[in-house]
Write a structure and sequence with these properties.
With 600 residues, this protein is of the alpha/beta class. It has helices spanning 2-14, 20-54, 64-109, 115-118, 121-163, 165-184, 188-213, 215-221, 224-262, 268-282, 285-330, 389-395, 419-425, 440-445, 453-462, 466-471, 489-503, 519-533, 568-574, 577-599; strands at 349-356, 366-373, 378-382, 404-409, 412-413, 426-429, 507-511, 537-541, 553-558, 561-566. The protein folds into two domains: 2-330, ABC transporter transmembrane region fold, CATH 1.20.1560; 349-599, P-loop containing nucleotide triphosphate hydrolases (Rossmann fold, 3-Layer(aba) Sandwich), CATH 3.40.50.300. α5 packs antiparallel against α11 (285-330). The longest helix is centred in the first third of the chain and has 46 residues, at 64-109. It starts with a helix and ends with a helix. The structure holds adenosine-5'-triphosphate (ATP). Residues 190-248 form a coiled coil.
């Protein structure tokens, strides 16, 4: 366990780079400042010794003022060093947090695009932000406090036994009882109760979130009372657990803990009374009284030290949490970059016995898939939902890499092509193509940064976006997502198509789904598709069979296998799965037309 913590910390410090030394300097200064903060107690002891030695003629005590100034100087020196130390740890912590962000982003940039399907960019950013914030708190504050606490604790133990070990032991006894009482609340059968109490707290938080999330549904279905019930139950369960834990578990130990933390001197007085006769007989009663004065004052520091230990323990847990978050980002798979990239010759796309299984899945999404799209040809992927169409299309721009077999572009294995070259060669339009919160111009130009305004305009026209530009207040320069400028799903898809048209790549991979387009948009999208695919090699995921009739080859995928392939005519004649799908499709279209007529 200890070893693990050490490694966590070492790993985190690894991100500090050249600022690592600054962290250590800050920690050292914090340790020295703790030692300095102890020195005033010794000065008090020295002053008390001088005063008692000359009592009752106090004016004879000549060094008392000096000790007073010394105590002041040590206290101020301690505070100054502490602040300088904190400055060092803060500087190092900011750099470390910024390095974590930079390295995290740099690593994520190397991840295959498919990684972002299962890890939304907001989630990745959230993890990086939280890890950086945790690290910042840990390195800037907690670590300095932990080091300071260790030094404070050791120095406290030494000082406790230096002047009179019996009175020191009396002070320590109170501290030990206080710590035992504190741990008794967390250990044994109480640990189970504490876990239950924390679980109830989590349930309450979740129920609260669910309740707030579900408000729209609740309003639609008029179920206010019913939905609130779960949340209310979670609150009641939590409050019962909290009450039980506080009343039955914490009351006694917490009272003991507080009593002995704040009253560390409770054993000191009886011990001093017990020792007084001996000291009197021994002849050094003045020394005895001086020591008593020291321990009476010094016992105040014990509660500070104990409180610090508790905070230090919770601070250490941060290291583990921060590291866990960082590794969630850093464990993202990296896309392998070929050492000696090959240049694709032509625009042929070929799958050679390709199989693919998603991480964590047992059944392959694609099994031994082979097909070819000759330059300029259109290959349509059709089949039942979950058949593997999207997966197959995703392997071409390397969203993922095939588990076995080879995907070739221009006769070269895609994993052997420089990713930038591959991206230049392939344009893809998937259903979830996102638009940025930027102007339409910038959104389209993302495909080709050097494109002129006129070229962007032409691409938008080719993608049938004329009506969109006309209705937007600033035309091409309208910011999407700002001041109520929102585009419908179909409109967004047309902008994404303009982007692909501007890219002018010889190979196009596209998902023709027009699920969220109204009939008007749909006609325009089909026209944009036609422009985009003209004269290019096209791999198209087709959901509506009417669009694949003219395809050069239709690949029918079912449960990851190619069950049939051929032209529309060949497949309908074969009477297999495709023929059945075609019959079903026509019946659905007929049904739709007749129901629309009836409605008229
Ligand atoms: N990111 C993922 N992680 C794990 N399994 C996945 C992932 N994406 C898809 N799958 C699984 O892989 C199989 C093929 O899915 P795929 O999306 O390629 O099918 P599809 O033919 O495109 O389906 P649809 O027509 O519904 O879009 C399915 O069983 C699906 O559950």
């Amino acid at each position: 366990m200890k070893e693990e913590k050490k490694n966590d910390l070492a790993t985190l410090l690894g991100y500090a780079g050249s600022h690592k030394g600054l962290t250590f300097l800050g920690l050292a200064l914090s340790a020295v400042s703790m030692l300095l903060s102890m020195a005033p107690y010794i000065c008090i002891w020295l002053a008390a010794r001088d005063l008692i030695a000359v009592a009752p003629d106090w004016t004879q005590a000549q060094n008392v003022t000096r000790y007073g100034w010394l105590a002041f100087a040590f206290a101020v020196g301690g505070i100054v060093l502490y602040f300088v130390g904190l400055m060092c740890t803060h500087l190092a912590a900011f750099r470390t947090a910024s390095n974590i962000r930079k390295q995290g982003v740099a690593h994520v940039m190397k991840a295959p695009l498919g990684f972002f399907d299962s890890n939304a960019s907001g989630l990745i950013r959230g993890r990086l932000d939280a890890a950086a914030a945790d690290t910042e708190t840990l390195l800037a504050h907690n670590l300095a406090d932990i080091v300071g606490t260790v030094v404070l604790f050791v120095a406290m133990l030494v000082l406790m036994f230096v002047f009179d070990w019996r009175m020191g032991a009396a002070c320590l006894l109170a501290a030990v009882i206080s710590v035992i009482a504190m741990f008794s609340m967390m250990g044994g059968k109480n640990a189970k109760l504490m876990a239950e109490y924390q679980a109830a707290q989590d349930r309450m938080t979740k129920a609260g979130t669910e309740y707030v999330r579900g408000i729209p549904v609740v309003k639609i279905f008029q179920q206010t009372v019913y939905s609130f019930k779960a949340f209310q139950q979670a609150i009641e369960d939590y409050s019962n657990k909290a009450e039980h834990y506080q009343a039955d578990v914490c009351r006694v130990p917490q009272s003991v803990n507080l009593t002995f933390t704040e009253g560390a001197f409770v054993f000191l007085v009886p011990v001093a009374l017990f020792l007084a006769p001996g000291a009197l007989a021994g002849g050094d009663f003045a020394g005895f009284v001086t020591n008593f004065a020291f321990y009476a004052v010094f016992s105040a520091i014990i509660s500070t030290a104990l409180a610090r230990i508790m905070f230090a323990a919770s601070g250490m847990m941060l290291a583990g949490t921060a590291l866990g978050r960082i590794s969630q980002v850093m464990d993202a798979p990296a896309l392998e970059i070929p050492g000696h990239p090959q240049v694709p010759k032509g625009n042929r796309v070929e799958f050679k016995d390709v199989s693919f299984t998603y991480d964590g899945s047992e059944t392959p999404a694609l099994s031994h898939v082979s097909f070819t799209a000759e330059p300029g040809q259109t290959v349509a992927l059709v089949g039942p939902s979950g058949g593997g169409k999207t997966t197959a299309a995703s392997l071409i721009p390397r969203f993922w890499d095939a588990t076995s077999g080879v995907v070739e572009v221009g006769g070269v294995d895609v994993t052997q092509i420089d990713p930038h070259v591959l991206m230049d060669q392939v344009a893809f339009v998937f259903q979830n193509n996102r638009l940025f919160k930027a102007s339409i111009l910038e959104n389209v130009r993302a495909a080709r940064p050097e494109a002129t305004r006129e070229q962007v305009q032409a691409a938008l026209m080719a993608a049938q976006c004329k009506d969109i530009l006309e209705k937007l207040p600033d035309g091409l320069d309208t910011q999407i997502g700002s001041e109520g400028t929102y585009l419908s799903g179909g409109e967004q898809q047309r902008i994404a198509l303009a982007r692909a048209i501007l890219k002018d790549a010889p190979i196009v991979v596209l998902d023709e789904a027009t699920a969220f387009a109204d009939p008007e948009n749909e006609v325009l999208i089909q026209k944009a598709f036609a422009t985009l695919t003209k004269g290019r090699t096209v791999i198209m995921i087709a959901h509506r069979l009417s669009t694949v009739v003219g395809a050069d080859t239709i690949i029918v995928l079912d449960e990851g296998h190619i069950v049939e392939q051929g032209t529309h005519g060949e497949l309908t004649a074969a009477g297999g799965l495709y023929a059945r799908m075609w019959t079903d499709y026509n019946q659905a279209v007929q049904w739709k037309i007749s129901s629309e007529k009836e409605a008229e």
